[in-house]
Amino acid sequence: MTATTATPGDLSVWDRVRGYSPSSRHLPVLATLALFVGMFGAGGIRYEGFADPQVVLTLFVDNAFLIVLAVGMTFVILTGGIDLSVGSVVALSTMIAASTLEAGWPPAAAMAAVLLAGTALGTLMGLVIHYFDIQPFIATLAGMFLARGLCYLISVDSIPIRDDTFFAIAAHQFTLPGGYFITPTVLVALAAVALAAYVLHRTRFGRTVYAIGGSESSAMLMGLRVARTKVGVYAISGFCAALAGLLFSLYTLSGYSLHALGMELDAIAAVVIGGTLLTGGRGLVVGSMLGVLVLGTIQTFISFDGTLSSWWTKIVIGSLVLVFVVIQRVMTRRQP
Amino acid sequence: MRKVLAHQLVWPTTALAVLLLVNVIATPTFFDIRMQDGHLYGSLIDILRNGAPVLLVALGMTLVIATRGIDLSVGAVAAISGAVACVYIAGSPEQGAASTAIVACSIALAVCVGLGLWNGFLVSVLGIQPIIATLVLMTAGRGLAMLVTDGQITTVNNDAFKRIGAGFVLTVPLSIVIALGVFCLAALVTRRTALGMLIESVGINPEASRLAGVRSRTIIWTVYVFGAFCAGVAGLMIASNTSAADANSAGLWIELDAILAVVIGGTSLAGGRFSLSGMLVGALFITTLATTIPTIGIPAETNYLFKAVVVIVVCLIQSPKARAALWVRRTAPLAGRATA
């Protein structure tokens, strides 16, 4: 597939541009990028004010928590697993944050408690999955029920967050040149993406994640640390879900047991649309971020249009997942 | 004794018995069944009636899981089924007529069979992983149901339709009769003919089955259609029980309850074997649990917590690795021989 067989010195710039074909690893992500740009272009032509850079920034602002969630999910799916618990962990995180703040904890301690709880739950699921050989689907399903149940144990009602620090962070805006703005949550989300990309591509842990997704038994025979990595990805996913829960509580300034219902499906859809193979072993974390942006664009599209009903979001997301899965299937069939 | 303990139905049945015992201790009149106006009433009847949709969905799910698949879309299919039936009845000129209800149910079930064909096509022809293939319909399905009902909760007024979920036949609630009827039919067809064995062989190895002359593709396709059909009937029951189609919350999480029922019943998610009687016990367990928790004075919302504990305990008991670990610890002197 690569066009670098001839010595590069003999080629003109045009030849190089014409001969460029992206490696198959990057192809799905490029497809997602093209989809995102295409949707945005279509929106810009159809609706006034759609092509404004602030609309793009607002996509990040509104979906910061989903980006963080998708980052964690990418790790799990790359190993060939799945994590259904993340939506419930987001709800649990908002509940822990709201109730600890209500009890008078300092904000830093509340945040630490949230992150610790999420990571602990993720680690627990990872241990059960690896050491007791229980399918990720079932183990994380139990985690999902557990987290939702714990939410109700804390409180059945919604708890408002009245902490000054949380208010300050939620209201803070960074002004960019040109009068545009972003929120601190966007920076957290982007940092999570950058850190995840670094870990996946520049560390031994990241390489092992891809190896397990390719073939777990081969990874085991190669002497890679399969156990540590497999438990690790679920811990990362739990941590990301807790972080996403913090961002979500900043976004809504409340804790509620019914927050983030079905958000795990959005996260999984974003990862799939981002071009990560659900059987594991292939995919980029940047793709998942683009996947979230595509989902966000669909919602922006519908809110700009005004005549389309909200349920079209679900139908379009479902169709996009279908298209991407079928394309993946065709591509993996061609190159086994 | 060990043989008895090793039987796959022992643990689920014990759990169900314990749960019923807890109920009797909490409310001594729990087992009472009384006759009123020629209808049976009582806690046990309520459990069976509330459990009928879960039982139906779990029935289809058992066969799907036996082929090493999974069907996440059943909740959405149930919502679509109820939506189609209610919208048809609401829009027909003779809203109250029995014929309208029959036509409405037929259309709804036909739509569900179509959705099952779609799932089966994605899985068996395109070869997409079942989780993902059915995830498509799970996400899009509720949107489709809302498209059908136009985002409204469509209420209907039709006595014949109301009977599916709330009616009685020969003193017994009709929904129980329907669910048990479909259950017996499925049990008969899978266990008295070769079909059950063929489904299991496809679950163990689709390719080897195909080479041995089993039509794996057709069988996989069929179980998804059957799963969607069962979900459709369950959706009709849910809609009929309230005489309304709620696209958002009808059958919400029913797929998870169904999968839970199947797993508790001892059917492995890895496919290759299934137990319909185990599934029946599992489905009864799930619905009894939902009834028990408010009965013993715990808020109904903590239901989830108990479900989580049950899933973990049941899975650990069934996991060979966990069993081995526990066994070694309990009989430490024999550990060497047991693991050798």
Automatic annotation (TrEMBL), chain A:
PANTHER family (UniProt xref):
ABC TRANSPORTER PERMEASE PROTEIN YPHD-RELATED-RELATED, INNER MEMBRANE ABC TRANSPORTER PERMEASE PROTEIN YJFF
Indicate the transmembrane segments per the record.
26-45, 57-77, 84-101, 107-129, 136-155, 180-200, 231-251, 257-277, 284-304, 310-327
- The protein's name is Sugar ABC transporter permease YjfF
The family database entries (InterPro entries) matched by this protein are listed as: ABC_transp_permease (IPR001851)
Name the NCBIfam families on file: PRK11618.1 (NF008630)
- Species for this entry: Nocardioides gansuensis
Q: What is the first-listed, main subcellular location in coarse terms? A: membrane
Gene Ontology MF annotations: transmembrane transporter activity
Gene Ontology terms: cellular component = plasma membrane
Q: What is the lineage of its organism?
A: Bacteria, Bacillati, Actinomycetota, Actinomycetes, Propionibacteriales
Alphabetically sorted, this entry's keywords are: Cell membrane, Membrane, Transmembrane, Transmembrane helix
The record's section on CDD domains has:
TM_PBP1_transp_AraH_like (cd06579)
Q: Which superkingdom, per the lineage? A: Bacteria
Annotated Pfam families: BPD_transp_2
Q: How does it sit in the membrane?
A: Multi-pass membrane protein
What compartments host this protein?
A: Cell membrane
Automatic annotation (TrEMBL), chain B:
State the annotated membrane topology for this chain.
Multi-pass membrane protein
**rRNA processing is among the record's keywords:** no
Q: Any transmembrane segments, and where?
A: 50-67, 74-91, 97-118, 125-144, 164-189, 219-238, 250-271, 278-298, 304-320
Membrane: is it a keyword of this entry? yes
What domain of life does the UniProt record list for this protein's source? Bacteria
UniProtKB keywords? Cell membrane, Membrane, Transmembrane, Transmembrane helix
The protein here is known as Sugar ABC transporter permease
Q: Where in the cell is it found?
A: Cell membrane
- Source organism per entry reads Nocardioides gansuensis
The residues forming the signal peptide are none
Q: Which GO terms describe its molecular function?
A: transmembrane transporter activity
Which InterPro entries has this protein been placed in? ABC_transp_permease
Which Gene Ontology cellular component terms are annotated?
plasma membrane
Pfam families per UniProt = BPD_transp_2
